[in-house]
Amino acid sequence: MDQTRRKILVPYDFSELSEHAVKHAVQIATITESNIVFLHVIHNLKNESKTLKQLQEAAQGFINKYGVNIECKVRPGRVSDVIRTFAVTIDALIVVMKTQKPHGKEKYLGSRAIRVMIGSKIPFYLVQAPPKRIALRRVVFPIDFRYENKEKLSWISFLSKYYTSKIYLFKPHANDYHVRNNLEFAKRFLEGKDINYEIVTGRSYFSQPNEVVEYANQIKAELIIIMLSKNITVAKLMLGLKDQKYISNNYNIPVMCLNARSDLRKYESFF
Question: Which domains can be identified in the chain, with CATH numbers?
Fold first, then answer.
């Protein structure tokens, strides 16, 4: 396994949903010439050897089928903490992870995906189903009032190195200075990179997740890129975090999630 190649982390728990995540990771790894790392989290180290063997057997099936490089790691601890910490430890390019609609206490405390991503400097690519298409041809990019919109453009630039994508800048029906400024910055950035884009104006003053998701489904988008909310609290979760509405959308559209301090300066040479 070439250790100098970038790494894509896939938390793998032998479920069908995590297999969907592997298929997405394979697509990204093949295009970006990255290695994949499987991570399985256990409560204690008693069954480490047995679990690692099972993980390696599962990985071998994907290696044989897709011809990718997969390394297997087993770590003990709390799932959300282990995934977040391990991603930083291996300097992962991205974490490709399964997600699903919150149920039970997750409706009030946030889904596991939300809890894993809070504070992470590594971007997350969340999926609910296997890839529908090979390429990322249509990417929806919600524009809002926040300055951090500009950070999402780094990933647009990175992905456009490997995919011939069209970016749909989805803006709210507002003439606010911050929205105008973010939109103009995005336009100049995309034009400077010769990236194809289209501006779409929503019906609401604030960008509503349901409206953005409906549009993404309408154009058959392969990806939505969002910036996670800052300072996520239990109160915000109980009131209904808009991020969750993107992540567990009804159309199983993958969502790339960035935290406000995420950046790609270490990959500047790829832009």
Answer: 7-98 (3.40.50.620), 138-253+260-270 (3.40.50.620)
